């Protein structure tokens, strides 16, 4: 047997490491001569909450929150606003989309303490004086939902998307990114709504509903 040290690791060392690993996997105990793992310090069990004032749907809410709490969890767990849904909780499905100062965001990816002083609109705040928002009405007219779980996020995102297009913001499929206005073709609508996933695949009806509202605006 030879010990090749050119790579800095001998065959004996490799064999010894393999034996030690096998012993650990079988017994759960370190092999003789192995160093003991350093104990991990337990995480604190109590975190001080902080007082927070949020402006949501034209109402003021005073709440004490753990500073690590997301805006979505604050809606649902502390304020009783359960319209915004928790889907993937990783910002990938769009079910939790709300409007903050008129712009759409994923409320699962932001902390509540970051939004004191902001104007926040959830799905509960779109209707006014008992009248549905035009986007809500269009989703119903076009049957733009099946199970409906993603619908609050879809509607909030659609409202924000129309405002972005009206302001001339281009998308990845816009032919002229310098144009002052954007024509909302079906391709444009699909691209701008690509951050909102409907697992029931009601996309055609969702696009139709958004197109209806864009044409009426």
Can you walk through the features of this model?
32% of the residues lie in helices and 12% in strands. With 217 residues, it is an alpha+beta fold. The chain has two domains: 50-125, Ubiquitin-like (UB roll), CATH 3.10.20; 127-216, Orthogonal Bundle (DNA polymerase, domain 1), CATH 1.10.150. A five-stranded mixed sheet has the order 2-1-5-3-4, with helices on both faces. Strand 1 and strand 2 (59-65) form a beta hairpin. Helix 3 (134-141) packs across helix 6. The chain is extended and about 75 Å long. The mean pLDDT is 89.
Which properties best describe this structure?
217 residues, Ubiquitin-like (UB roll), DNA polymerase, domain 1, five-stranded mixed β-sheet, extended, 2 iron, 2 sulfur cluster binding, 2Fe-2S-bd, 2Fe-2S_ferredoxin-like_sf
Give the radius of gyration: 26 Å
- Major sheet: 5 strands, mixed
User: How many distinct folded domains?
Assistant: 2
- Beta fraction: 5-15%
Low-pLDDT segments, ≥5 res: none
Q: Helix-strand pattern, N to C?
A: HEEHEEEHHHH
- Estimated helix fraction: 25-40%
Q: What would you say the CATH architecture of the largest domain is?
A: Orthogonal Bundle
Number of strands: 5
Strand arrangement across the biggest beta sheet: 2-1-5-3-4
Distance between the termini: 82 Å
CATH fold type of the largest domain: DNA polymerase, domain 1
Tertiary shape: extended
Keywords: 2Fe-2S, Iron, Iron-sulfur, Metal-binding, Oxidoreductase
Organism: Rhizobium gallicum bv. gallicum R602sp
GO molecular function: 2 iron, 2 sulfur cluster binding; metal ion binding; oxidoreductase activity, acting on the aldehyde or oxo group of donors
Domain 2Fe-2S ferredoxin-type: 50-126
